[in-house]
Design a protein that fits this description.
Length: about 240
């Protein structure tokens, strides 16, 4: 049966000699015997064990977990499988979080390209908007989903009125849709906030001002309640909602 020195087993597993020695001191890779000169000698089983250790380390499992796992008297195969599944879950979560950070950085870079002058505060504003972009998109989706059937109903009642002279459905539509529109607008503006480009504070305007303000998909022309600046402010989602 083959015997391997510390250097040989390190080379076969692609690690340093000090790593092999460290695993020995931790008690997770004990040499099968010592030579007459006191050199550590490792067997084929030791080599297989070392490869398992290296594999588990490569997927991010800690030395303590590996030591506990390999100290089990029973076949550790099922435990390794469960451990790998857990590690996979953690790695996928980490990848997802890193991807979210990358998406935010890409968004900030795109926004900065459109700005002639920007400051640290401006970058903070963009980061805040990007962080809450998903919730803001969900809020816009609610408006869109509810707006489509309202629009269809409106035009159907108008066409019916023009074609047949029956105006009652349109009148009923108006009686229902006006209160609903105010409720929906109130629902929206309770969850929306605005970032002042002057003082960079996040503020909540009055309902009337927000409802009738000139706007674009991401901006509204408002008066900041913090510094009094009047101009286009960036729309975002309120974190306290």
């Amino acid at each position: 049966m083959s015997k391997y020195t510390t250097g040989e087993i390190a080379r076969l597993c692609g690690v340093s000699v000090r790593t092999v020695q460290y695993y020995d001191t931790r008690g997770i890779l004990t040499p099968s015997e010592l030579s007459e000169g006191g050199r550590r000698l490792y067997s084929e089983d030791n080599l297989k064990r070392m490869k398992i250790i290296c594999f588990l380390r490569d997927v991010g499992i800690s030395i303590n977990s590996i030591g506990e796992l390999l100290s089990e008297d029973n076949n550790p195969g099922s435990v390794i499988s469960a451990l790998l599944e857990q590690q996979e879950h953690l790695l996928r979560k980490e990848i997802s979080e890193k991807q979210a950070n990358l998406d935010m950085l890409d968004g900030i870079k795109r926004e900065l390209k459109d700005m002639e002058n920007f400051s640290v505060e401006s970058i903070g504003d963009i980061a805040y908007v990007m962080e809450n972009k998903t919730k803001m998109n969900q809020l816009h989706a609610i408006l869109l989903i509810t707006g489509i059937p309202i629009g269809v109903t409106q035009w159907t009642s108008i066409i019916l009125w023009i074609a047949t002279g029956i105006w009652q459905p349109f009148a009923l539509f108006v009686l229902i849709v006006i209160p609903y529109a105010f409720w929906l607008s109130n629902y929206y503006f309770k969850r929306a906030a605005y970032i002042c480009p002057q003082c960079h504070e996040i503020f909540k305007p009055g309902f009337k001002e927000a409802f009738f303000a000139k706007h674009t998909p991401m901006l509204k022309k408002l008066t900041c309640t913090c510094c009094g600046h009047k101009g286009f402010c960036v729309e975002t989602y309120r974190k306290d909602e």
